[in-house]
Amino acid sequence: VLLFGDSGTGKSSSVKAILNKYYNKKLRVIELNKKDFMDLNNILSLIKHRGLKFILFLDDLSFEEFEYEYKNMKALIEGGLEVRPKNVLIYATSNRKNLIREGFNDRQGDEIHARETVEEKHSLAERFGVTLTFSVGNQNDYLNTVYKLAEIYNINLPKETLKREAIKWAALSSGRSNRVAKQFIMSVNSLV
After folding, report:
1. Buried residues in 73-98 as b, exposed as e (16+ CB within 10 A)
2. Is 138 in contact with 175 (CB distance < 8 Å)?
3. How far is CA 121 from the centre of its chain?
4. What is the mean pLDDT of the chain?
5. Torsion over CA: 114, 115, 121, 123 (sign)
6. Which residues lie closer than 8 Å to 97 by C-beta, 6 or more apart?
7. Which end of the chain is more exposed for a tag (fewer CB within 10 A), N or C?
8. Directed axis angle between helix 114-126 and helix 69-78, to 10°?
9. For the chain, how far is it from start to end, CA to CA, in angstroms?
10. What tens digit of pLDDT does each residue of 132-157 get?
11. SS3 97
12. Does this model's pTM top 0.70?
């Protein structure tokens, strides 16, 4: 599963929520970085007979143009000679849909088969069977998140005050994501 989209929209939090929801049903999450992923076959051999279900989690996965580890990762995700155990899923989060930085030169360069270069870079993301898109909502979505968090944290300010201050906070921050809403509520919570 590839969860991609705008920063602060809940990609990583969704994976943590899945773990919390299904922990009692023997689900575990193993967080890996892209370097650890090169040991996937060893990791699989250690966990395939544990009587548990696992999500191998790669948070904020992306590659620069000069990083070629993604080529190995493609083969490992799809499975080489050894079949991935049924008790293991791979989840990754990224702010990039295609995971690998692309430039205009990839499409217009002097390479004879430029399309193949672009397809090569897209092929890693295509290995994930399910892709979920996370995007920043509109102002009403942001404010609804603020109101819900205010309720959870027992912040008893008038709704109009919360609205006015939350809009100011978003304008001075990085937008109207769920992360910004939580940061706003935490700042208000420390003052109340």
Report:
1. beebbeeeeeebeebbbbbbbbbeeb
2. no
3. 19
4. 84
5. negative
6. 4, 125, 131, 133
7. C
8. 50
9. 40
10. 989 988 999 999 999 999 999 999 99
11. coil
12. yes
pLDDT, position 37: 77
DSSP per-residue letters across 109-171: SS-TTHHHHHHHHHHHHHTSS-EEEE----HHHHHHHHHHHHHHTT----HHHHHHHHHHHHH
Question: From start to end of 16-130, where are the E strands?
Answer: 27-32, 53-58, 88-94
Per-residue CA distances from 137 to 2, 143, 176 (Å): 20, 10, 7
Element (H, E) at 108: helix 104-108
Instruction: State CA 160 to chain mean position distance.
Output: 33
Per-residue pLDDT of the chain (192 residues; tens, 9 = 90+): 999 998 889 999 999 999 999 999 999 999 998 888 778 888 999 999 999 999 999 898 877 666 656 666 766 677 665 677 889 999 999 988 776 666 555 555 566 555 655 566 566 667 788 889 899 889 999 999 999 999 999 999 999 999 999 999 999 988 899 999 999 999 987 766
Q: Tell me which residue of 168, 179, 173, 119 sits closest to 145, measured CA to CA.
A: 179
Q: Six-digit token pair at 33?
A: 């970085």
In eight-state DSSP terms, residue 102 is -
Joined tokens for residue 51: 């009587």
